[in-house]
Amino acid sequence: MKSPDQLYKPVGCLECRNTGFLGRQGIYEILPVNESIRPLINADADISALRVQAMKEGMRTLRLSGAQKVGAGLTSVEEVMRVAPESGK
After folding, report:
1. Which of 32, 38, 64, 73 is the most buried (most CB within 10 A)?
2. What's the pTM value of the predicted model, to 2 decimals?
3. More confident residue, 22 or 83
């Protein structure tokens, strides 16, 4: 993923109650289940192996999804860090 040319910081106003945010912007971590993922999903699942395979298949973590929104100027790094847990937790 290419680094953004500019990082935006939230600036407050009366409309957003000085938060710098108005409305909601979703970040998503979606795991498409396919033939290479399906066998990894079971009661004894190795979550690390499942995550590695999912990333190979193109899944983006919440933080990566959030980073893309930061790059697009839709949110801030601080907001993504606040709402998205560290990978593997």
Report:
1. 64
2. 0.68
3. 83
